[in-house]
Amino acid sequence: MQRDLGAFAGQIFDIAIxxxxxxxxxxxxxxxxxxxxxxxxxxxxxxxxxxxxSSKLIHGGLRYLEQFDFKLVHESRAERRTLLxxxxxxxxxxxxxxxxxxxxxxxxxxxxLGLLIYDLLGNLGAADxxxxxxxxxxxxxxxxxxxxxxxxxxxxxDSETDDARLTIEMILAAAERGAVLANHAEVxxxxxxxxxxxxxxxxxxxxxxxxxxxxxARYWVNATGPWVDHxxxxxxxxxxxxxxxxxxxxxxxxxALSPDHALFAAIRPGERIFLxxxxxxYALLGTTDTDYDGDPASVQPDYKDIDYLLAAVNRILNQPxxxxxxxxxxxxxxxxxxxxxxxxxxxxxxxxxxxxxxIRNFTSICGGKLTTARALGENLLNxxxxxxxxxxxxxxxxxxxxxxxxxxxxxxDFVRVAMEAAEKKFGIPALVAERIIRTYGSRWGEVLEPIRxxxxxxxxxxxxxxxxIAEVLFAIRHEMAMEVSDFLLRRSGLNxxxxxxxxxxxxxxxxxxxxxxxxxxxxxxASLAAFRxxxxxxxxxxxxxxxxx
Length: 549
Hints:
Helix content: 25-40%
Number of strands: 18
Strand content: 15-25%
Number of helices: 16
Radius of gyration: 23 Å
Shape: globular
CATH superfamily of the largest domain: D-Amino Acid Oxidase, subunit A, domain 2
Largest sheet: 10 strands, mixed
CATH class of the largest domain: Alpha Beta
CATH architecture of the largest domain: 2-Layer Sandwich
């Protein structure tokens, strides 16, 4: 996948998508799979906003059952099954332990009933069904739990993912089918026909060079997440209404509690829950849910977020965690379809399609979840095909077309065989090979193949877990990484862990980018500074919240 702005010229696309997060990426893939001429631009990098700042889950949303949102849970559970088939390396089943303590807002019978419904709404077979445990059994499963007040526990299953790489693979899938895409390309304005009913062009600026170009399309999709209303404001005759509600979700990175199980538990007092997930040998704890009215590009965790999350998890831990245990953190924004009179946690996570009064060929996506993005794209394309004069398609190819790294078959068998091949063909140590295989799936060989010609590409980056020079080059040459942060935060597979642990590697990554893209010294330092600006927590130490820093 190459970035070629010239490919936008001289074409009228069937559909132009503004925004390369998961919703835009899934819509682009859907449209390309159905044979449409597709363009997609993003003002930043693909997945740079909400789609790299989530809880890293493909899940049904167990707590949505309490809100009687059975439709959303059923769709989400079905999509979990679909994504496991399309990308086994990116939708890994994960057992969740749900401990039940005295005073919790849920009790054992209620939990068993809820999990029975959850299973009925979609699981992956007998081994994926929930189980219940007595306190002693739960403590053997998670020894770090607080035994006092523990009444019972249950285990149920969802899936863990790399949200940024899932988005990137959707983008890659669209590109493989002919979509023309560019990151770091910002829409500055739209132009309509004289009657104002149809948008015909957009003016786009390449944020890397300052060059501007015209994008022409028959239909437009605004998939910019937290920036949806900003992009709507660029339309001629915009009426000033709002369609989305922004809520902030903060996550913090902690030492591992359990390598194989996640935790799901109540936050008291109230109706909220927290999740503690195993993540690259550490633990990811989230999330907050508070209204946000600032600049979406400036969202950051704060002290209150850290205190809130630590207090929530410490209630159920035998050995409480302190601020000094926090290794890193990040915050993102949910762009929820507005529902008046509801708290942030009660606001629906379902997606909505907003059409502008008086404009026939422009749809904005409001709300939605990482899990349901593929279904969103399928449903939206059926609506767009009607507008374009084609009958809504019954083609469901996006339900069966594998993502680029998804041709693995049973994942654990694939990983075992591929690890042996990586060590034999490329001299890659087993642990390094396993991480690469689980990150890139069936594309792992493409990442390592250049090592045959240049063994220095098998060297690890300074101060990292085993992250190879070959991976940086692969991201630049084949995954449209244009900045240091594009690789470290969104393509490396380490996501925001890179922000906490890979600061020593960043200068070497910048050197590789400079050599590959012919950067000046000033350009290299600017990209490095931009990465560091994404991660302000790296500038101070743990006693100041490692970053909240």
